[in-house]
Design goal:
single chain, globular, 15 helices, 8-stranded mixed sheet, 6-stranded parallel sheet, alpha/beta, 429 residues
Length: 429
């Protein structure tokens, strides 16, 4: 369908999603990855990541999906996206060594008329410092969301493109590709584009933090945050797509990286970013909501021994446990002097990815719930919504459900004789 060839350097979450979407749009693609095993797996049709809808698109576009562990294969490409996931440490600092090495490798093998587009998230100032001629280098903001990455990549609201000269037209190959998505293309200088990604996430964090603060106040006032949400969604200044569902702080690594970046930028430029530090502190506090509720119940004299935990991922539709509130909760329970018997289940998280032991993994939600004194619903996976409170009441030893995301309905739990604790609603021990 399309005559240009597009390369993706780095077959991690970002690269795999982006390549499959490019193929779905009708372009021939080459995915380069330094590890032979990853290339062999992808060539056989084995996806190392999970995203809803990804496998189906992958299978439909196999003819346009090519893979190689040799960077020379990228010489066929008109443009190459640098698409490696950038790891962060516990302080939100990015490890840029992997992307610097990838750019050096790719640039050595590209044709002189080919273009490099940095898709990986980098700190402001990164792209302009590259030694490649600036007329050949662009930065594109990615706004993928774990669990909704296919949808976000296939139907973007807009493209944000950082350029050496925003007033110059985009090269035809880049224009052809981006125009195929039929959405606005916003050109700007490198630094503005790099900061745009952080700006988007800053506004997101402010909304999430406000929601969580007000939700907690509702719990203390005997108000119900879920009754307030419709009023806010009907306000044009806030709107129907606002992040108004309360949660257990921010996680996943990307938002945390952007907050840490803003603090460093502000410190270096002698700006004030104290509110950002407050958001980080607030997020840490939110992660312990389930533990605080559990402690209140335990201290009230309840004999708790058997605990069932449903969900380990930091959110639904992903296997990532980066900064997951469920992992924080699980570690806290295991570290107790009192020895709890803990069963866990998550449909995507593999137990070997959890850096500690002291719990048993079972194969279904029902197995988790059998004979449990307390059920902790820590990730809002869709399959957990199928659980019936009447069934849970019959198979549990106790009657407490700690369900921060309101996966189950309080009224149905109460009718079944279960105590249901959730974010944004008052509770009584």
């Amino acid at each position: 369908m399309q005559s240009i060839n597009i390369g993706f350097a780095g077959m991690t979450h970002l690269g795999i999603i982006s390549q499959v979407i490019a193929a779905t749009r009708g372009f021939n693609t080459i995915g380069y990855h330094v590890e032979d095993e990853t290339v062999k797996s992808l060539s056989k049709g084995d996806l190392p990541i999970y995203e809803p809808g990804l496998k189906n698109l992958f299978n439909k576009n196999l003819q346009k999906l090519n893979y190689s562990s040799k960077p020379s294969a990228l010489n066929k490409c008109d443009l190459v996206y640098i698409s490696v996931d950038i790891p962060t440490n516990n302080f939100g600092t990015s490890d840029l060594a992997i992307i610097n090495k990838m750019i050096d490798t790719v640039s050595f093998h590209l044709r002189e008329d080919a273009f490099i587009i940095v898709l990986s998230q980098v700190p402001p100032g990164f792209t302009r410092k590259l030694s490649i001629p600036h007329k050949r280098v662009f930065y594109q903001v990615e706004t993928l969301i774990y669990g909704r990455a296919v949808e976000r990549a296939m139907y973007p609201e807009r493209f944000i493109v950082g350029c050496a000269d925003p007033n110059a037209p985009l090269p035809p190959a880049i224009e052809t590709y981006l125009s195929s998505f039929d959405c606005p293309i916003l050109k700007m200088r490198y630094e503005s584009a790099e900061l745009s990604k952080i700006s988007i996430n800053m506004y997101l964090v402010s909304s999430v933090s406000t929601t969580n603060i007000l939700s907690e106040i509702c719990e203390k006032l005997d108000a119900d945050w879920h009754e307030i949400i419709p009023a806010l969604k009907l306000d044009k200044r806030i709107g129907p797509h606002a992040y108004l569902k309360p949660g257990l702080g921010i996680a996943g690594g990307n938002l945390e990286r952007d907050l840490a970046t803003v603090i460093r930028l502000a410190d270096n430029k002698e700006c004030n970013a104290e509110v950002v530090k407050s958001w980080i502190a607030d997020s840490t506090y939110r992660k312990d909501w389930s533990l605080r509720r559990f402690n209140e119940v335990a201290l009230a004299g309840n004999n708790i021994k058997f605990i069932g935990m449903l969900g380990l991922a930091y959110k639904e539709n992903t296997a990532s446990i980066k900064n997951s509130a469920a992992i924080v909760m699980l570690r806290s329970l295991i570290n107790r002097t009192k020895k709890y018997k803990i069963k866990v289940y998550d449909p995507q998280v593999q137990s070997e990815t959890i850096p500690f032991s002291g719990f048993s993994v079972v194969q279904s939600p029902i197995e988790v719930c059998k004979n449990s004194d307390v059920i902790l619903l820590m990730t809002p996976w869709p399959e957990f919504k199928k659980l019936k409170p009447t069934v849970l009441a019959n198979i549990m030893k106790g009657n407490l459900i700690i369900d921060p995301y309101s996966i189950l309905k309080t009224e149905e739990c109460s009718s079944a004789g279960l105590r249901h604790l959730t974010l944004g609603k008052a509770f009584h021990i």
